[in-house]
Design brief:
By secondary structure, the protein is an alpha+beta fold. It has one helix spanning 51-62; strands spanning 11-12, 24-29, 33-38, 47-50. 18% of the residues lie in helices and 26% in strands. The longest helix is centred in the last third of the chain and has 12 residues, at 51-62.
Length: 68
């Protein structure tokens, strides 16, 4: 996905995120895509998801699919 310019992305994280910085940040992108990155490594890799992929992930989290 090298054709996506992240220089103008506005990143945010949950208000519930830990003070120690162990959280993820999300940015909305054109074309109903979302970018996700590690807040501790802001220049590191970024994952790009379509809107439907993100919706499926959020539904899985809410449904307990990832509970340990």
């Amino acid at each position: 996905m090298s054709d996506i310019d992240l220089s103008e992305a506005v990143w945010w994280k949950s208000r519930q995120s830990a003070v120690n910085g162990n959280c993820v940040e999300v940015a909305r992108l054109p074309g109903q895509k979302l970018a996700v990155r590690d807040s501790k490594d802001r220049s590191g890799p970024v994952l790009i998801f379509s809107g439907s992929e993100w919706a499926a992930f959020v539904a899985g989290v809410k449904g307990g699919d990832f509970d340990l």
